[in-house]
Design a protein that fits this description.
Layout (H helix, E strand, L loop, with lengths): L2 H26 L4 H18 L6 H6 L3 H26 L6
Length: 97
Amino acid sequence: MQFIPVLVLMVLFFVMMFGIGFILNMLMKTTWFPSYLFVIVILPVVVYSLWDQTVPLTSHLGSFQIVDYLTGVAGLAGAVISGWTIRKLRLGGYKMF
């Protein structure tokens, strides 16, 4: 495992989920919707789409490498921080849409 590509991938997923979450928060006027969307919809869809149905789910989840988990955590962190940022901006008096 090389460190630089993993770091770039983590930053990319963080920024992508932060941006998508920030835009969804502004348009839908919800604070934590992107975090719930990431955990409830996106992660299970990715896991199911990569799952070979001939092996049990537990061994499939064990087959993921640390890189896969690091990018998932970075994406979740971006979604959570976008909600936190919108909440702080709204408490600061900024009204977005």
